[in-house]
Design a protein that fits this description.
The chain is α/β, with parallel strands linked by helices and 132 residues long. The chain has three helices and eight strands, in the order βαββαβαββββ. β5 and β6 form a beta hairpin. The structure holds zinc ion.
């Protein structure tokens, strides 16, 4: 289970719409399964099918997260035209087993879907998002 404030969900959806038709990506910072802050990141792939975060930007954000006494507890990205489910590539690139992978689907643009997953050793399991 992951706890996310309503306005942070809105921010992720807004960011995803802004990057459309490309994928958007970002980092969720928080503690003990509760998201406190989101960091929209640059998708250096500038692609509609993939995302990759700029390592320098990521390092900067990780430093800020640490200075706030928080941790990276999730990574979000958007699927502009497909379902909110990890792609084969998403699974291959899921390096972190202790973070939530959140996917925003804009397949139905007027009704964005958001789901969260854990990906461990290639195994996908969905977790519940608790909107607070
Ligand atoms: Zn994906």
């Amino acid at each position: 289970m992951i706890y996310i404030k309503k306005d942070l969900i809105a921010q992720m959806i807004e960011h995803s719409k802004k990057e459309f038709p490309n994928e958007a990506c970002g980092i969720l910072a928080g503690k003990e399964g509760k998201v406190e802050k989101i960091y929209p990141m640059t998708n250096t792939d500038r692609s509609a099918q993939t995302f990759f975060m700029d390592p320098r930007e990521q390092l900067k954000v990780m430093k800020e997260i640490r200075s706030l006494g928080l941790e990276m507890i999730g990574i979000y990205h958007s699927h502009p035209v497909s379902l909110a489910y990890p792609s084969t590539r998403d699974v291959e690139l899921a390096y972190y087993s202790h973070v939530s992978y959140i996917i925003v689907s804009l397949k139905d643009k007027d009704n964005p879907k958001i789901r969260s997953f854990r990906i461990e050793e290639g195994k996908i399991s969905e977790e519940e998002i608790k909107i607070v």
